[in-house]
Design a protein that fits this description.
This protein has about 220 residues and is an alpha/beta fold. Helix content is about 40%, strand content about 20%. It has 9 helices and 8 strands. Helix 4 (about 125-140) packs antiparallel against helix 5.
Length: about 220
C-alpha cells in the first residue's frame, strides 16, 4: 500500500488485527527485514511495516535527515488515525523512534529501540572509519546521514515519558556505554544487552526478537 505524506509516497504493509504496532527498519534496508516478526506479531496485533523515504518502494529524495523522517512517520500515524501505536525501531528506526517520543510525547503507547545512537560518537570508531571511507567513494546520502547525524541530547532523552525498552547486542557497532547512557537518561526505561549478538543478528533472527518484544509489550 502507498500513502502520500508531506509530498512523498511511503510504501507500507499492514497485516493482522489488534492493537497497532509500527516497525521501523534501519539505514539501507526496507520493511522486509521484519518478515518473520510481522508474521508472528500479526497473530495478535495490527502490524504496520513501512519503507522510510529513499528506501525500499518509497519515494526517492535528494537529502536525508532524521527530523524529516520522523515527521513522515508522525504524519503517517495522524493520517491513518492510528491510536497510540507501539513503535519498534531498529538502528536508524530506533533513532526515529526516540525523536517521535521527544517531539510527539502523546503519540505512542510504548517504544522499543535497538542498536540506536543519539550522535555519531556513539558508533564504534572502527565502524565509523569504514562508513567514512565508503562515503568518500560513493557519496551516498544514506552514509552521509550516519556520519553527520543524529543530534539528540541527554536533556532531550530526559523529556521522554513513553515507556521504553532499550536493546543492543553485546557485539553491537554502537558503543555499549552509549546504549547504557540512552537507557539511563530515559526515566523508567528498561535496558537489555543481548549476549553473543551483533548489531543486527538478533533482528534478522526475528524469532528471538519477537520473544523480547512480546515480553515487554504484554506487561
Amino acid at each position: 500500500m502507498r500513502i502520500n505524506v508531506k509530498g512523498i509516497e511511503l510504501f507500507y504493509n499492514v497485516s493482522g488485527e489488534g492493537p497497532p504496532i509500527i516497525l521501523l527498519h534501519g539505514n539501507g534496508q526496507d520493511h522486509t527485514i521484519f518478515r518473520v516478526l510481522i508474521k508472528k506479531l500479526s497473530v495478535n496485533y495490527t502490524v504496520y511495516a513501512i519503507d522510510s523515504r529513499d528506501h525500499g518502494k518509497s519515494s526517492r529524495v535528494k537529502r536525508l535527515d532524521y527530523m524529516s523522517k520522523m515527521e513522515d512517520f508522525a504524519e503517517f500515524i495522524h493520517i491513518l488515525e492510528i491510536h497510540k501505536p507501539i513503535v519498534y525501531g531498529f538502528s536508524d528506526g530506533g533513532i526515529i523512534g526516540l525523536l517521535l517520543a521527544i517531539y510527539h510525547p502523546d503519540l505512542l503507547s510504548k517504544l522499543i529501540i535497538s542498536g540506536a545512537n543519539i550522535n555519531p560518537d556513539g558508533v564504534k570508531k572502527f565502524f565509523m572509519v569504514l562508513i567514512k571511507i565508503a562515503h568518500f567513494f560513493t557519496r551516498s546520502n544514506k552514509l552521509k546521514l550516519m556520519i553527520t547525524q543524529p543530534d539528540i541530547s541527554e536533556d532531550d532523552l530526559y523529556n521522554i515519558t513513553t515507556p521504553t525498552l532499550v536493546l543492543a547486542g553485546h557485539r553491537d557497532v554502537i558503543k555499549e556505554e552509549h546504549t547504557k547512557l540512552i537507557a539511563r537518561s530515559i526515566e523508567g526505561s528498561e535496558l537489555r544487552i543481548i549476549p553473543g549478538e551483533s548489531h543486527a543478528s538478533y533482528v534478522l533472527r526475528n524469532e528471538k526478537l519477537y520473544e523480547i518484544i512480546k515480553s515487554f509489550i504484554e506487561k
